[in-house]
Amino acid sequence: MSHLKLFAAVVKWHGIKILRKPDVAGRVFLHGQRYASSGTSEPFLSGSNSNYVEEMYYAWLENPQSVHKSWDLFFRNANAGQTYDPHLPDQLERKASFLQSHGLAQTPGKAEKLVEDHLAVQSLIRAYQIRGHHVAQLDPLGILDADLDSFVPSDLITTIDKLGFYGLHESDLDKVFQLPTTTFIGGNENSLSLREIIKRLENTYCQHIGLEFMFINDVEQCQWIRQKFETPGVMKFTNEEKRTLLARLVRSMRYAGVVLGNCSVTAGFEDFLARKWSSEKRFGLEGCEVMIPALKTIIDKSSEMGIEYVIMGMPHRGRLNVLANVIRKELEQIFCQFDPKLEAADEGSGDVKYHLGMYHERINRATNKKITLSLMANPSHLEAVDPVVQGKTKAEQFYRGDTAGKKVMSILLHGDAAFAGQGVVYETFHLSDLPSYTTNGTIHVVVNNQIGFTTDPRMARSSPYPTDVARVVNAPIFHVNADDPEAVMYVCSVAAEWRNTFNKDVVVDLVCYRRRGHNEMDEPMFTQPLMYKQIHKQVPVLKKYADKLIADGTVTLQEFEEEIAKYDRICEEAYTRSKDNKILHIKHWLDSPWPGFFNMDGEPKSMSCPPTGISEDLLTHIGNVASSVPVKDFKIHAGLSRILRARLEMTKNRVVDWALAEYMAFGSFLKEGIHVRLSGQDVERGTFSHRHHVLHDQEVDKRTCVPMNHLWEQQAPYTVCNSSLSEYGVLGFELGFAMASPNALVCWEAQFGDFHNTAQCIIDQFISSGQAKWGPEHSSARPERFLQMSNDDSDAFPEFSEQFEVSQLYECNWIVVNCSTPANYFHVLRRQILLPFRKPLIILTPKSLLRHPEAKSSFDEMVSGTTFQRVIPENGLAAQAPHEVKRVIFCTGKVYYDLVKERKNQDLEKQVAITRLEQISPFPFDLLKEELEKYPGADLVWCQEEHKNSGYYDYVKPRFRTIVNHTRPIWYVGREPAAAAATGNKNTHLVSLRRFLDTAFNLEAFEGKTF
Ligand SMILES: Cc1ncc(C[n+]2csc(CCOP(=O)(O)OP(=O)(O)O)c2C)c(N)n1
Ligand SMILES: [Mg+2]
Question: Is domain 616-861 classified as CATH 3.90.1150.10?
Answer without folding.
Answer: no
